[in-house]
Design goal:
By secondary structure, the protein is of the alpha/beta class. The chain has two domains: about 150 residues, D-Maltodextrin-Binding Protein, domain 2; about 100 residues, Periplasmic binding protein-like II (D-Maltodextrin-Binding Protein, domain 2). The protein contains ten helices and eleven strands. Strands 5, 6, 7, 8, 9 and 10 form a six-stranded mixed sheet that branches. It has a five-stranded mixed sheet with strand order 2-1-3-11-4, sandwiched between helices. Strand 1, helix 3 and strand 2 form a beta-alpha-beta unit. Helix 3 packs across helix 9. The longest helix has 20 residues. It is elongated, with a radius of gyration of 21 Å. The N and C termini lie far apart (about 45 Å).
Length: about 260
């Protein structure tokens, strides 16, 4: 029993030592390596793509400034979604900032910082339509753009099934075709991420976004499990940006909604 306790203490001490040295390792290397979706310079079918990428890169620079003392000492690695968290786990990158939702599945692969952004599942309606609740969707058709990863149609179907609301979901190849289905009356609304729908609404008259989210989804910085000191400094940075109002300013600068609670 005593030997087992000694072994456990040694393993715990080793783990703690490794975790405590992560920030020092980064500083010794001379740069912070962050995985991002891309640099926002390429066209994308996500209406708010440029805004979200710009906002996250500004956040990456703020975290780099806090850790390195110089925001230029960062390497932004553009990685495909399927490899971002595995690359984090392997130590190839230090952080992932890419609108990663805080979900149980994702939390099994990484540690999450305090949320830096909040959005969620919402509905795009014709401007003349009445606000709509989940129960109001019973018997109605909801349009969605078909997506490879963010399956908002499946999320709405799950929510409807859980609450006993029978609805019809129809997917379309593009965002524009899903919107046109609403305009023609083929669908009562278009479902999707609040940010994308709100960005479209701002640029196109005749539409509005439902005031109430059907499901909130918060996003956070992904940190490798065991890198406790790095997680702490990322949390401190986000908390300070929030406390000073800088996070809200950054969010609004990139024309994104600030939906995080005050506390």
């Amino acid at each position: 029993m005593f030997k087992r306790w000694i072994v456990a203490a040694i393993v715990l001490g080793s783990t703690t030592a490794n975790a405590a040295g992560k920030v020092e390792q980064i500083r010794a290397r001379g740069k912070l390596i962050i995985s991002v979706k891309n640099d926002a310079k390429k066209p994308h079918k996500d209406p708010a793509h440029f805004n979200k990428r710009g906002f996250e890169i500004e956040l990456a620079h703020a975290i780099t400034r806090r850790i390195m003392g110089d925001e230029s000492k960062v390497e932004l690695r553009i990685l495909a979604r399927p490899v971002r968290l595995p690359m984090l786990s392997s130590g190839a990158v230090d952080l992932v900032i890419s609108m990663i939702p805080v979900t149980p599945d994702n939390a099994g692969q990484c540690e999450f910082s305090h949320p830096y952004f909040s959005s969620g599942l919402s509905l795009l309606l014709l401007d003349r339509a009445e606000p709509i609740s989940l129960n109001d969707l019973a018997g109605k058709t909801i349009a969605f753009r078909k997506q490879s990863f963010n399956n908002y149609a499946a999320e709405l179907q799950r929510i409807g099934d859980e609450r006993g609301v029978k609805l019809t979901i129809r997917t379309y190849p593009t965002f524009e075709e899903a919107v046109n289905a609403v305009s023609r009356g083929e669908a009562a609304a278009m479902g999707g991420n609040f940010v994308d729908l709100d960005t479209f609404r701002k640029a196109n008259a005749g539409f509005k976004v439902n005031a109430q989210l059907l499901e909130e989804l918060r996003v956070a910085v992904a940190v490798r499990k065991g890198d406790a000191d790095l997680l702490q400094i990322v949390n401190e940075t986000i908390d300070n940006l929030k406390k000073t109002g800088e996070l809200k300013r950054m969010t609004e600068k990139w024309q994104l909604p600030y939906l995080l609670p005050a506390s």
